[in-house]
Every structure is written in C-alpha cells, then in structure tokens.
Amino acid sequence: MAKLGDWLEPHPHGIYVRPADAWIDPSIPQPRALVTHGHADHARGGHGAVWATPETLAIMDTRYGEQAGHPVAYRESVRLGEVEASFVPAGHVLGSAQILLEHRGERIVVSGDYKRRADPTCAPFEPIACDVFITEATFGLPVFRHPETGDEIDKLIARLHANPDRCVLVGAYALGKAQRVIAELRARGHEAPIYIHGALQRLCDLYAEHGVRLGELIPVAGVAKAAMAGHVVMCPPSALNDRWSRRLPDPITAMASGWMRVRQRARQKLVELPLIMSDHADWDELTDTIEEIAPREVWVTHGREDALIHWCEMRQIKARALALIGFEDEDD
Which domain of life does this protein belong to (predicted)? Predict the structure, then answer.
C-alpha cells in the first residue's frame, strides 16, 4: 500500500512533485518551479518556468529580472502533469500563497510561510482541508506568542511624540515587513511623511502599484538632517547601525521582528525600541491552524520542528520533519 504523499520528494533544496515534474520553492534553478512567495529563501531566479501569483512574479521580476512566469490567481487551478495545483492566500506578504496539490485522491497543502494576524498589505490566510499539511515552524516554541500589532505600533508612535527633536529609525526587512509597518502606521492615523532608505524604494513602489496605501514616502538621500526630526525613518536591518544612520537626527533605534521577543537578540543588535511584529505564525497560531485544518499528517519545516512534532504526536496526529534549507531571519 502506498504511503500518504509518497509522490512528494523533500530535498534540502526544495520539494520535488514527481507526477508534475516540478519543484516547490527550489533554492537552486530548476526547469519548472512553483513558488509560494517572493522572499529569497523561497524564490530564486534562473528557473526555466515559474508558476506563482501575479504579485509574487512581479516581486521576482523586481529582484531577479524578468521571469518566465505563468501567473496563477488565487483559487485558480492549473494542471501540471498528473497534478492539479491551486494557489490560496497565506497571509504572509503581498502575493504569498499556499499551494494545494491534488493527485491520486490525496490533497497536500504546502503552506510556505504564513500568519493568521490581520495585515493591511496582503490577503488573509485561508485554511484548506487536506490530508497532509506542510507547515513552517519559525516560531514553533510555546514561548513565542506575539502581542497585538496595534499595541506595538502605539509604542512606536508614543516614542516618536515623546522625542520631537529625534527620529525613530525602524529596521524592517525590505519585502513585506517594511510595507506592513508603514501601512499599520497609516491605519493608526499617522499621516506624516515617512522617510525611507533607498533599498526600500523599489518594493514600496511595487506595493503601492498593487493598491497598498503607504502614503507619502520620501527618500532620505539629499534630505537635511533637521527635516527628519520628529519623523519615522525606515531602513533594512543592516543599515540600523551603519554609517548611513549618522545622517539622521539622533535616531532612536527600533526593529520590527518576531525575534524582538528574545531580549538577547535586541541587545546584540543595539535596538533601543524592540517592536515584536512578525509575518510568521506564533505558537498559538501554528497549533490552532493544525487543529482547524485537522490533517491526517503534518510535515514540519523551517524552524523549531521538534516542539511542534511533539505537540502533534500528543494529539495522535502523525508528524515528521522535513530538512529543507531556510533562513529564518530573511523573511521575518
């Protein structure tokens, strides 16, 4: 008797879907790739053909040059060999998708990265009934319970108002996190101009082109130091303590990341204002999602597999770890 999902072959560099002759999120170029979202540990250039959402393809075009892309809208199905593949919102970043694979009467969901929190910059996660649920576990430990997003944004605004002669410099990843912080600020009524590092410009422009309201964004280059006092400045994390930041008016260093829950990480990065904001599911969201979907098996990857596998086994859910390559900091 065939094992459930034996037509999928997990490799360190991606998941090979044998009856489709295609790879999911391969980290090395392949002839045929299905891509869940645009972060670099899931989307690479150089593939012969790429199936992804239109937004993910646009992100890949921006990062890697024009792709041999086959756009697949949310909830649209495509036939690849003997497999029916559908793309369903994952709630991670703009265009992020879970990929539902149907073959031989089995339904397998490759969720990619996902979160369950509301996010004004992307479509919300949709649970899909399936036999096998392949889940990330970036924050797969009970200690990781993310606070309310609005409370973290309120901390940022309060610090800004309390220091009108300084700026708050927020480190946030260029794809997804930076745009989410900006959009959440707008949602809390912060309509003042926000200054941005040049490395964020292209992806902020792309988000705006796809209807995400980011308001007035001004490149830092060429702006007088005094003009940025009392304002939020956004940059990639690598620029937080770089020489670039010396052009700013006495910046209060902040960073938006789920890893800011770990105080040692905040200290190591010299972060004065940790903002616990993640684009990944926390422990409760991971376990609640599995309970809601109720799959026959759970395959775990990208993170703290052991704790989540133990949680599944305690509930008589068969679980296993997949040793896929991932870079947990890249997409948080």
Answer: Bacteria
